[in-house]
Amino acid sequence: MAFRVTVRPTDHAFEAEPSETLLEAGLRAGLNLGHGCATGSCGDCRARLLRGQVEQAKHFDYRFSDADKQDGWFLMCSCRAVADVEIEARETGSAAEIAPQCVPAKVSRIEQLQDDVMQLTVRTPRSGGLQFLAGQSVELAFDGMPAKTLAIASCPCDAVQLRFHVRRRAADPFSGFVFGDLRKGAPVTLRGPRGDFTLDEASERPLVFIAWESGFAAVSSLIDHAIQKDENRSIDLYWLSAIPRGHYLSNVCRAWRDVLDDFRYHSIDLEPAGSERIADVAERVVRVHSLLADCDYYLVLPESAHAAVRGSLRAADVPPEQIRASLMTHP
Ligand code: FES
User: Which contiguous run of DSSP H or E holds residue 111?
Assistant: First the structure.
């Protein structure tokens, strides 16, 4: 039987199974609960029990003062709920609140999604995942290679296993390394997280995502996070590609469409691979959505496409605070 956990002062709530810690349950529910080591050492997941009961589920080394204990302080990564509870806890609201981290990790999986796109899964030690917000990037440093910053394609609810998408490009030594010499088990250092292309958690407006080719990585993290949060917002995803077979994870998009009530996936082939022009697509997408509702727009686009979409948004009087963008240097 799951217990209800209400977090103050945000009033966010989630269900916690008796088999999981409060931190695991909160992250699974899509909350950005402040934490660090996840193993009971750093104290970053300190929370205060206001009502109900928790019990220790895992060993921890962090030391509370007697006064702290009397005030009800405990560690979310080490305790589970044994009744419905109300707790006071820190939730990360913005990218600026997350401290820079340097995390040793290993490549745990290399999957060729298609001829020219690889998906890497990188695993950190259980004792120290990477804390990040959906939509952020991180620098990956392999021995002997210049470091590369990539968007994290997975949801922050799993801080230990992170996914990345790498497209093969002739002039890019990093993609040459990934498609050639990289092997499972290779050590890699993660530094970050970086960027503020994150979800506006306070908004309840419909979401419109416009992603270009491998810009889908950051958008998939945002959509997974919105799903984890059980957001009751309508979602439209426009995935644009100017190369053949640029929509390399359409199956994932169709799975979202099948399980979500209010999700639409639009796969668009731009010229020269397809027949659509970016200016026409931008004008059409913005016209349709600005007529229907007041939306939040999330754009991951190269500069020229970004200028076209921005122009259409400005023409439709969409307020700047409802537009979040990440510029791609290499589609
Ligand atoms: S996250 Fe470090 S003690 Fe809980």
Answer: strand 101-114
Is the CATH number of domain 96-194 2.40.30.10? Answer: yes
Kindly report the protein residue whose alpha carbon is nearest to atom 1 of ligand 1: 38
Using the CB atoms, write b or e for 243-273: b if 16+ within 10 Å: eeebbbbeebbeebeeebeebebeebbbeee
Q: Which CATH number fits domain 207-328: 3.60.15.10, 3.40.50.1400, 3.40.50.80, 3.10.20.30?
A: 3.40.50.80
Separation of CA 36 and ligand 1 centre (Å): 5
- Cα 1 to middle of ligand 1, angstroms: 25
- Count the helices and strands in the chain (H runs, E runs): 7, 18
Q: pLDDT tens digits for 116-147?
A: 999 999 999 876 788 899 999 999 999 999 99
**pLDDT surpasses 60 at 98:** yes
Q: How far is the CA of 168 from the centre of ligand 1 (A)?
A: 38
Classify domain 3-91 at the CATH topology level.
Ubiquitin-like (UB roll) (3.10.20)
Non-local (6+) Cβ contacts of 96 within 8 A are: 196
* Residue of 22, 32, 35 to mutate, ligand 1, most atoms within 8 A of C-beta: 35
Contact 91, 7 (CB under 8 A): yes
The pTM for the full model equals 0.87
